[in-house]
Amino acid sequence: MFFMIQIMYGYSQNFINDSINLNEVVVSITKIKDSLNRSPFSITSTDYQNFQKNAQQFYLSEYIERIPGVFISNDNNFAQDSRISIRGFGSRANFGIRGIKLIVDGVPETTPDGQSQIDNLNLEIIQNIEIIRGTSSSLYGNSSAGVIKIKSLTEFDKNFSKVSFSYGSNNQTKKQAFFGLRKANSFYTVLVGETKADGYRNFADFKNSNLNLNFKKNISKDTWLNLNFNIVDSPYAYDAGGLNIGEVKTDREQARERNLLYQTKEDINHYKFSSSFDKKINEKISFSTYAFISKRNFNGKIPVKNGGAIKLNREYWGVGVNYQIESKFKTQLGIDIGNQNDSRKRYINNLGVIENLVLNQREKFINTGVYLVNNFQLNRFTISSGIRYDINKIELKDQYLDDGNSSDIIKLNSLNPSLGINYQLNKNSRIFINTSSGFETPTLNEYSSSPIGTGFNKELKSQRNMGFEIGVSLFNNKRKSNIDFVYFETVSNDEVLSYEDENFPNQKFYNNAGKSKREGIEILGFYKINKTTISASYTSGKYIFKEFTDNDKDYKGNKIPGIPNNTLTVSLEHKTKNKLFFNLNFKNIGSMFADNSNLVNVSKFNTLNLKIGKEFNLFKSTVYPFLILNNIFEQEYFDNIRINAFGGRYYEPAPKRTIFGGIRVSL
Q1: Which CATH class is domain 2-666?
Q2: What is the 3-state secondary structure (H, E, C) of 42-96?
Q3: Within 10 A of 550 (CB to CB), how many other CB atoms are there?
Q4: Domain residues of the chain, as ranges?
Q5: pTM reported for the whole predicted model
Q6: Which residues fall within 8 angstroms of residue 379, CB to CB, at 6 or more apart?
Q7: What is the pLDDT of residues 233-285, one digit of tens each?
Q8: Distant-in-sequence, close-in-space partners of 85: CB < 8 Å, separation ≥ 6
Q9: Strand partners of residue 329
């Protein structure tokens, strides 16, 4: 462990930047803006403006995988989307993201019921990401066991035009153009792009096209308005499915035969319009608000005959308002309102041919959350507190009455407080401690996955969490180094888990575990020597069921599946005087279990990735060719584990070595 601590002068929990700027970093993810080193929470703030030059820009994992406590899988199945877990929360997701709040440019991307998809996320224009690695329902309400806040590039000093083309293994192709125009105090940006690939496995093709328009205006010295419109069209994303271990050994690249027979795939189009407004009324009082409306049309097929063709039309909107008083005692009072309406229809999937309607229901999730956040500074102490009350109303209106009327209403309200204390030991160190409660409602999709085939699964309850953490940070501006240690512990009641039933093979259902516990340590830091930066992160966790009996099976003491025991990343980065960039990244993912019984162990694995790029000035433009080698030594591992899959179909193999390269031109 001592050796580990020595090399852990790596990736900073406090601030990560290609240039390693250790000046005071102000974060806003805790609602009240403050210096990160005075915040009593585990927060990472990462700048990506230089990182973007060498990024593959295909996977969100590329941006956040080196943050401790964060684990990402399912990168290569674009029909299911990346699965992100923070300290073990989010691991149950069958598709998309659960249990974690995603916020983009101050506006929630997560639906009121707690679902997040990232197929409409523009990776190419990410400027900064802040992450809270801990329960945060006192700030953000439902599904906030971790929070990811993304800021796009919306302000700049001068006009720009950026075009790029890149290509790689498995016909991975990315084409994009990004333009920025500044007129006085107004900023206009336009992004158009197309991403597609054949996939490493058979029957894993996908295509995604997006358009993002943004307008930001400084109306006056203390007043900002931002408007954004985003549209994404994905005409196809095929799902190769899970394999059993015998099929993996025979052919890692094959698709599951049943998925081929039933033509499992999805197509989506997604529209979102959002606005935000910030006004500083006077030296002490400020006002902020946001509003958005979003529409998502989804058509999908799963390898099931009865109800295996799905048509989902989702509309959701939200508004939020807050007032903040600035003084030694900072206070913010706010309200968030969200409304989600899903029209869900299921049809017979007769070997890929859509036939008769078997389910037709409208589902609604209405949320109102009121919160109060305080931040008080007294000499070297910073005390933060928060409390939030959420009212959640869930409605189902059955419109297919051939099998009876399953209409229903469920109410799930929740009160969540938090308290944290930060103490500055001296100018180069701090210690913090906090405790907070949280909750996570079942999503509409999880409620509608009913073993009786219609209506809601009323047996499902909200998951309740109680978290605690204590951390120490050591930072040295002169030596350009930083190291952080955090111990965390969270106890959950009624944890929502996924499973497959032998009476309904190939379908996902959900139930509640009695009690579970997550605890572990996170170490993070960096050390810079001239033009070379060594960075690293390490997580060691224990995630277990404390009380859980299901179908007469007692899982007490078993590890929660889908979460690795340990993760380690070490990165070496160097930039020469003639603008040659080099990055070598090593990743070790520990073993995990694929099932509640802990009978199926998934082995640990290592990967080594290389990035190299060189900047050239050509006339009045900058040309940047780059090359990326992933999994250099062709480690065989799994991109995703399908938790508790029936018939042993746990495994989705990951690509071996891949090559990706391209050129980016800035005018």
Answers
A1: mainly beta
A2: CEEEEECCCHHHHCCCCCCHHHHCCCCCEEEECCCCCCCCCEEEECCECCCCCCC
A3: 15
A4: 2-666
A5: 0.94
A6: none
A7: 999 999 999 999 999 999 999 999 999 999 999 999 999 999 999 999 998 99
A8: 70, 71, 72, 91, 99, 100, 562, 563
A9: 376
